[in-house]
TrEMBL record:
Lineage: Bacteria, Bacillati, Actinomycetota, Actinomycetes, Micrococcales
Keywords of the record: DNA-binding, Transcription, Transcription regulation
Domain HTH araC/xylS-type: from-to ranges: 182-279
InterPro entries, alphabetized: AraC_XylS_family_regulators, Homeodomain-like_sf, HTH_AraC, HTH_AraC-typ_CS, Tscrpt_reg_AraC-type_HTH
Domain of life: Bacteria
Pfam families named in the record: HTH_18
Full protein name: HTH araC/xylS-type domain-containing protein
Length: 285
């Protein structure tokens, strides 16, 4: 899933650490505490603007301080700078995903203050990363692969902890407690741009068309087609916010024309993709 490297960083008192732009990074605080720019309190909980339907990340009640045991994840779509007034020990992983769209439902900035409590095994694993930089002489066979697996585990655990404390949007891989429907939902989120039909989705769920359509609506509360469109529109907002053009977004999400995509986006959000992106830029500024 990922490639990249992890490192352990000792920040002195008043030390500053800018995270690399354009790179998915996770940070686990081993000791001490850090503040963030933008403020860490802007992370964690999703909010939806009722006018624009734009998804934003905010939790005003959260302290703007990430202490030992905390973790944060940034997708690299904004500049993030950490500072430690009293010093801190951090593990920083910089990762490159083989499939960047895999995290399209995750906001660009996630903070989990109680990561060590929520995910003790993953936190203990993270604490071991970056301890001994490899040299040509001491690399054992398979070490880089094991380190990538460890980093992947930590990354997924941060996302799981974030999800389990109630920070997820409505469309986040809803769990139905039905293994066949969960398989369908996972497939939709993994490939929102695929030409999904009721027949193809029923095939993923190993059901007949009629049984699948009735079960999906009964359990999820909406039709399969409506769910697919919702996932696509959330993915579209993430792509547009990250700088993709309307045409690039339309093609990535399976629309044959910009006009068809724009009509679907307008029905879902109340405005055209270009107007939504322009308004988001104004708000961000």
């Amino acid at each position: 899933m990922v490639s990249g490297a992890t490192r352990r960083i000792e920040l002195p008192a008043s030390g500053v650490l800018p995270l690399t732009d354009g790179v998915v990074s996770f940070v686990h605080v081993i000791s001490g505490a850090v503040r963030g720019h933008p403020p860490l309190a802007s992370g964690c909980t999703l909010g939806v603007d009722r006018l624009t339907r734009a998804i934003s990340v905010s939790q005003p009640a959260a302290p703007d301080l990430l202490s030992a045991g905390g973790a944060l994840l940034t997708l690299g779509d904004r500049s993030v700078i950490l500072d430690a007034s009293q010093g801190a020990t951090l593990v920083v992983g910089e990762l490159r995903l083989s499939d960047p769209t895999a995290l399209h439902m995750v906001p660009g900035f996630v903070v989990v203050n109680d990561f060590a409590a929520l995910e003790p095994a993953a936190a203990a694993l993270a604490a071991q990363l970056g301890l001994d930089p490899f040299t040509t002489d001491d690399v054992r066979s398979g070490d880089p692969v094991i380190c990538r697996m460890m980093a992947t585990t930590v990354l997924l655990s941060v996302i799981r902890a974030w999800a389990e404390i109630g920070c997820v949007p409505d469309e986040w891989a809803a769990r139905s407690h039905d293994p066949f429907l969960d398989r369908v939902i996972a497939a939709i989120h993994q490939a929102p741009g695929r030409e999904w039909t009721v027949e193809s989705l029923a095939g993923v769920g190993a059901m007949s068309r009629s049984v699948f359509a009735e079960r999906f609506r009964s359990v999820i509360g909406r039709s399969p087609a409506s769910y697919v469109v919702g996932v696509r529109m959330d993915a579209a907002k993430s792509m547009l916010a990250a700088g993709s053009t309307v045409s690039e977004t339309a093609r990535e999400l399976g629309y044959s024309s910009d006009e068809g995509f724009s009509r679907a986006f307008r029905r879902h959000s109340g405005m055209t993709p270009s107007a939504w992106r322009a308004q988001r830029v104004v708000v961000a500024a």
